[in-house]
Amino acid sequence: MFCTNPRTRISTDDARHYVLTTAEKFDIIASDRWTCLSKGTAAIYSKEYFEAVKRHLNPGGMFTLYVAA
């Protein structure tokens, strides 16, 4: 079930691409359900990605990353 709160937006875009190409700031950024052993997911575990996420968080914002091995 998706949230119907108009203040909430869920994006299913590639997380790394999204934060590197948007100028928006967010209260919460959640990267969900990737395993670092899957092909093509290594870039989401890079220093560059984490720094980009930090730049796009509002003051007091929160970042979550689901990791499964």
Which tags fit this structure?
69 residues, alpha+beta, two-stranded parallel sheet, 2 helices, 2 strands, 23% helix, globular
Question: Can you describe this structure?
Answer:
This protein has two helices and two strands. The protein is an alpha+beta fold and 69 residues long. Strand 1, helix 2 and strand 2 form a beta-alpha-beta unit.
* Contiguous runs where pLDDT drops below 50 for at least 5 residues: none
* N→C terminal distance: 26 Å
**Largest sheet properties:** 2 strands, parallel
- How big is the Rg? 12 Å
Spell the H/E element sequence: HEHE
Q: How much of the sequence is in beta strands? A: 25-35%
Q: Tell me, what's the shape?
A: globular
Number of H/I helices: 2
Query: Would you tell me the overall average pLDDT?
Result: 80
Strand order of the largest sheet: 1-2
Strand runs, count: 2
Say what oligomer this is: single chain
Helix content: 10-25%
Give the class from helix and strand content and strand pairing. alpha+beta
Provide the fold topology.
Elements: H1 15-21, E1 26-35, H2 47-55, E2 57-68
Parallel strand pairs: 1-2
Quick structural gist:
With 69 residues, this protein is α+β, with helices and mostly antiparallel strands. The chain has 2 helices and 2 strands.
